[in-house]
Amino acid sequence: MPAQSSSELLGFPPDARLLIVNNDDFGMYRDVNEAVVRSIEEGIAASCSLMTPCPAAGHAMGLLRDRPELPFGIHLTLVCELPGRPWGPLADREKVPSLLDGTGGLSTHERIPELLARARIDEVETEFRAQIHAVLDAGLAPAHLDWHCLADGGREDVFELTAALAGEYGLAVRAWLDPARAVLRGRGLPAIDHDFLDSFALDLEGKEAAYARRLRDLPPGLSEWAVHPALGGEESRTVDPQGWRVRRSDYAFLTSPQARELLRREGITVIGYDVVQRAWTG
C-alpha cells in the first residue's frame, strides 16, 4: 500500500490545504509575548514556540499557565541575536562550554557557523534537557520541539538528538529541510510537503499583499509559516532595532480581517503543533 500523505496522517483528506501558522520567539521580550497571544486568540496563528533562556520567558510561561488551551512548543535556543538584551544557557556554564561565546553567553547570529563547528552533542543534550525541564517543572505541557535560528537543528546529529528527546517526552518535532523531512516520512510521520516560510525572508514593502498571495496560491498538502509577531511598541524599537518592523508587520497581518476572510474563502485549514503531536504520539 502507498504511504499515507501528511494530510491523512493528521486526520484530514489527502487533498486538504493545511497550513501550520506558528509564532516563533515567545519569551524574547514582553512586546513579543503580548502579540503572540493576541495573534492566536484574535488572529489566524494556531500555536507558538517558547524560548526559555530569554528575559521574558517567565512572563510568557505565566501567560501559558493562564491559557492551558493554547498550543505551544519549546524553541530550543543556542543563539542570542539581541546584543542589547543578551541571554545565556539554562544549564550550568561549566557543563556546556562548547556552546558559549567569549563572554560566557550564547553565540550571536553571525557566529552560528563557529557554534555548529565546536558544539559537542553531549553538551547540546545537556542544554536542551535543561530548557525542556524548565517548561515541564513549571507545570506546562508543550506539544513540540523546534530550534531558534537553526533550521532542523543545524546539524544532522542535533536533529536526531531532538527527535529522540521528542520521543522520550511525547512531543512532535518541526522539520523544514528536505533531508529531515525525508527522515520523518520514512518513519511514517507527517512532514511539510512544500517549502516553509520564515517571515523574516519577506520584504517589508508589499508584505501584506505577499501574504495574501501565498494564501491564495497555497497548494494541497501540508505547508508551514514561521511568523514572528510583536506589537511594535517602544520596547520593540529599543531592544530589537533590526527586527521590530518585521514583527510589527507580521502582527498586523495575522490579526487582520483580510487574513481570516482569505482562509475562509480559500478553504484553508490552519493547524497548530498540537495536531502534529497527536500524529507523533497516537
From TrEMBL:
Q: Name one GO molecular function term.
A: metal ion binding
Which processes are annotated in GO (biological process)?
carbohydrate metabolic process
- SUPFAM superfamilies named among the record's database cross-references: Glycoside hydrolase/deacetylase
Query: Which cofactors is this protein said to need?
Result: Mg(2+)
* Entries under InterPro entries matching the protein: Glyco_hydro/deAcase_b/a-brl, YdjC-like
Signal sequence extent: none
Q: Which UniProt keywords apply?
A: Carbohydrate metabolism, Hydrolase, Magnesium, Metal-binding
Q: Which domain of life is it from?
A: Bacteria
Show the PANTHER family listed in the entry.
CARBOHYDRATE DEACETYLASE (PTHR31609:SF1), YDJC DEACETYLASE FAMILY MEMBER (PTHR31609)
Q: This chain belongs to which protein, by name? A: ChbG/HpnK family deacetylase
The organism is Nonomuraea polychroma
